[in-house]
Automatic annotation (TrEMBL):
Extent of the signal sequence: none
Domain O-methyltransferase C-terminal: 262-406
Gene3D superfamilies reported in the protein's UniProt record: Vaccinia Virus protein VP39, Winged helix-like DNA-binding domain superfamily/Winged helix DNA-binding domain
The protein's name: S-adenosyl-L-methionine-dependent methyltransferase
InterPro entries, per the entry: COMT-like, COMT_C, SAM-dependent_MTases_sf, WH-like_DNA-bd_sf, WH_DNA-bd_sf
Amino acid sequence: MVELNGNSVPASDSHAGKQVDEIAVSPTAPDQVANLAKSIGSLSKAFTAGEAGARLQLLEAADSLLSALETPRETILRYCWRNPTAFAAIETGINLGIFRHLSSHDRPVPITELATATGADILTLTTTERIMKHLNAVHAVTETGRDEYTSNNFTRTVANTRYADAFPTIAGTTSPAIAAIPAFLRQTHYQNPTNGLASPFQQGFHTKDSFFEFLARDPILSAQFNNLMSVYHQGRASWMDPGFYPVDRLLTPTPTDTDPNILLVDVGGGKGHDLNEFRTKWPAARGRLILQDQPAVLAEATGLHESIERMPHDFFTEQPCKGSRAYFLHSVLHDWPDDTCLKILAPLRAAMTPGYSRLLINENVIPDRGAHWQATGLDWVMMGDFAGAERTEAQWRGLLSRAGFRILKIWVGDAWSESLIECEVDA
């Protein structure tokens, strides 16, 4: 054995030699290339024909083809160079207003104009040039000629503050925590983090605050975080869509119920984007819609449908809405370890009417095989920032059983979207 960065490794690893060098510069899975290329051809036709689900399947196949064709060395450079520098370049482009300026023109824009319009002194043109070349290399903008650029759909999307805020949010709340995970796990002998006050977040940000305490100290960052929460689920299958969850049969109150009765309580619902979506897709649904969150969050909930009621509430305290038809938690429990989740769930169980009330949990349910990177990646974000987790079906069943709930059904839209866990009080 030899020592490498303080860890014992087999001696053979220290002089792997020519064989490993050859592997490192050879495609990772050459035997899969032909079948993947054939699949891409077929899925491309389906996508062009407008078949439902074809785009996402094509995206998966293309990603698999990239991984199969790419050499291990190229993969290393993609993770170590491309991804982190792309993030930095995009955040810089947002700060300078590059994406907004490009998106405001229907013509190519020369770099000299960009430098002037974004406030960068013409003497620092070289810096702007470096930024733009990398933004083009990672497809954040489109190069149309020498030192000339135009917008694409990504450019136009991050020209909008609500979407662009994802980058400063992750930089200001998450990236250092993720970077701290390897050292944290090594120091804790790879024990699963279970304390949101002693997690990679505190280590990465050099703070004693919890994530939300840290966030509350910075109103600008807090607003950016709320914007991210309002858009990160865009484009995914929604439980409110026809064919996902039978809203009309299982959620809408019966004709004998009167209008003042509460139909849906969105607990920790942020700016109310879910309730707005519900009202838009189910305009005839009877009953009150209640948005609950901290007062500072509710103050930013603008553009709500007039039928949605704001209610300041701390979900660790007694639930004021008793006997509601449904209580909804969207991406709340994944922020917390199990013991804290039990404290959030207890007031809801106490408020529910057995046999009538439903608890609807809209979160990832990680499958036993073939989990998607959006779920597994978010699991690492939760581990880093909160000592929380994206849970498997077995983990959900164990947690909810301990909380006194019975799962009626786990409703699944597709592999890329969150599921809906429907529960009732377990008598």
